[in-house]
Automatic annotation (TrEMBL), chain A:
Pfam families: GntR (PF00392). It comes from Arthrobacter hankyongi. Gene3D superfamilies: Winged helix-like DNA-binding domain superfamily/Winged helix DNA-binding domain (1.10.10.10). The keyword Cell inner membrane does not apply. This is GntR family transcriptional regulator.
TrEMBL record, chain B:
Gene3D superfamilies: P-loop containing nucleotide triphosphate hydrolases (3.40.50.300). The keyword Disulfide bond does not apply. One of its GO terms (molecular function) is ATP binding. It comes from Arthrobacter hankyongi. This is ABC transporter ATP-binding protein. Transmembrane segments: none annotated. Residues 14-239 form the ABC transporter domain.
Length: 130, 315
């Protein structure tokens, strides 16, 4: 679950972000407390708090004094915009690199992407497509 | 977790200044200086005989140190009831009166520890399936360790030391210990010093790591800073070597024209891209791996210094 070789607070922040992007965590929904995160992922509570606070500083979550943490309005759109910017570098670049290595041409590659995109459309569209 | 922000919490729970301890001709502790803030979980790591138990004995007033200053909760722990009543030390092979039952051991603990919680002790004993009315001498090694773990947790002492507390505890019982430790720490923040060989198992529980080797502190840093502070670069030696040049090398392996070098480095995105373009593989290093590498690197450095001294003397 937790990858031992990267800062855990970053992983906690990423997981919460992911839940927001996938709309598992709706805007204005309450997120679990740091102690709940700590118990669930079996990590130090201070580490969990660091991950959550990172999102608070980033404006993705906000604090209601004495109640807890909530997902900010507009958080999902902001996260999706940010991820689109990183998409080419994170996913397309390694994909093209590997395709070149294997001698897969551009036409073949786009065909593969197209058929995969169509085949999986129904299962993922609900939360991803606009 | 909410950290208390009042001024009292700001004073370190444990402070050591240049502490050394010698047994005859062995330096068990060699100029140890540490300042540990309160209400955190610390991991005290190191090989057998590195000085972990000696350090904890000094901090719990069970042993003298030869030189330097020691303060626990603001005072010298040695024969100091004001300090000793607020700390709890669970040793690897904790001794209890043989004719006691676990229940009697708990009652004795209740007299000693100010914040002892008897209900919690019974609840934990049940989880560890501890026979409360069997005499200590009839308990298995694992059950004996469970008695220690229960006392350590239920004491809710301001500073609690667990020195390899799980000899004979199976994986399930150890997981119960880790889970209860985290849970109770979250509800009742306090200072925990956990000494362990099972680094992979405890790594995620720790906020701060202290690595000791032959009496000296080799590493004293937040666990989160340590994670990701080293990487292993692998690929063609002709490309790996220029890439790692100028960095602190913790380990180097070669196989023909291939090299795999572990260096202390937090790589930037640009450096990662550069490595990818060179066809190099970058692998993360876990806390356990890093501790092993650091310990071995410290040993190597020592033997290098020793060799240099020998050469100088023989000159």
């Amino acid at each position: 679950m937790i990858d031992e070789s990267r800062p855990i607070f970053l992983q906690i922040a990423e997981r919460i972000e992911n839940d927001i992007v996938e709309a598992t965590l709706a805007e204005e929904a309450q997120v679990p407390s740091t102690n709940e995160f700590a118990a669930f992922y079996r990590i130090n509570p201070a580490t969990a708090a660091k991950g959550v606070n990172r999102l608070v500083e980033d404006g993705i979550l906000y604090k209601r004094r004495g109640i807890g943490m909530f997902v900010a309005a507009g958080a999902r759109d902001r996260l999706r915009a940010r991820r689109r910017e990183e998409f080419a570098r994170q996913y397309v670049q390694p994909l093209v690199q590997e395709a070149r290595k294997l001698g897969i041409g551009i036409k073949q590659l786009t065909d593969m992407i197209e058929s995969t995109y169509t085949a999986t459309q129904d299962t993922t569209e609900g939360s991803v497509a606009q | 977790m909410n950290r208390p922000t009042h001024a009292k919490a700001a004073a370190p729970a444990i402070e050591l200044r240049d502490v050394s301890k010698e047994y005859k001709d062995v330096r068990a502790l060699d100029g140890v200086s540490l300042s540990l803030a309160g209400n955190r979980i610390y991991g005290l790591l190191g090989r057998n005989g590195a000085g972990k138990t000696t350090l904890m004995s000094v901090l719990t007033g069970q042993g003298f140190h030869s030189s330097g200053e020691v303060a626990v909760l603001g005072g010298n722990p040695y024969e100091n009831d004001r300090v000793l009543s607020r700390i709890c030390f669970i040793r690897e092979s904790q001794k209890y009166p043989e004719d006691f039952t676990p229940l009697q051991a708990f009652r004795a603990a209740a007299l000693f520890f100010e914040h002892w919680n008897a209900d919690y002790a019974l609840q934990l004993a049940k989880e560890f399936q501890l026979p409360l009315k069997r005499r200590i001498k009839k308990l298995s090694r694992g059950q004996l360790s469970a008695v220690g773990v229960v006392i350590g947790l239920a004491s809710r002492a301001e500073v609690t030391f667990f020195d390899e507390p799980y000899l004979g505890l199976d994986a399930v019982a150890r997981q119960i210990f880790y889970d209860r430790l985290l849970e109770d720490f979250a509800a009742h923040p306090r200072t925990i010093i956990l000494s362990s060989h099972l680094i992979d198992e405890v790594a995620n529980l720790l906020e701060h790591v202290i690595l000791i080797d032959r009496g000296r502190i080799v590493l004293d840093d937040d666990a989160e800073s340590i994670r990701g502070s080293a990487v292993t670069v692998a690929g063609a030696a002709s490309k790996v070597e220029p890439f790692v040049a100028g960095r602190t090398v913790l380990h180097r392996e070669t196989l023909g024209s291939l090299a795999s070098v572990t260096v202390e480095a937090v790589l930037t995105d640009a450096e990662r891209r550069q490595a990818a373009d060179l066809g190099l593989e970058i692998a993360p290093v876990s806390l356990q791996q890093l501790v092993v590498r650091k310990t071995l690197a410290a040993a190597e450095e020592d033997s290098a210094t020793a060799a240099a001294t020998v050469m100088e003397v023989s000159r």
